[in-house]
Description:
The protein is α+β, with helices and mostly antiparallel strands. The chain has one domain: 2-Layer Sandwich (Metal Transport, Frataxin, Chain A). 37% of the residues lie in helices and 21% in strands. A 3-stranded antiparallel beta sheet has the order 1-2-3, with helices on one face. Strand 2 and strand 3 form a beta hairpin. The longest helix has 11 residues.
Amino acid sequence: MAKLPQISAIEFLKILNKTGFKVLRQVGSHIFLKHDDGRTTTVPNHPGEKLDRGLLNKILKKDIQISREEFEKLL
């Protein structure tokens, strides 16, 4: 299986918006998002840095509950 692509927080937020997540608030560099069905996640936004693959995988599996294949289709 290929590695997850490294993307910025802004690119990831655009993908989350496509799946129905809305920004609730931002505290410092952390953006809190919520879906209408109750799922929530937090994305760190550090300008100039990419999201770590481990964190991205955790968010996909545990928080937003979509498969890697679905995620790659949204890219």
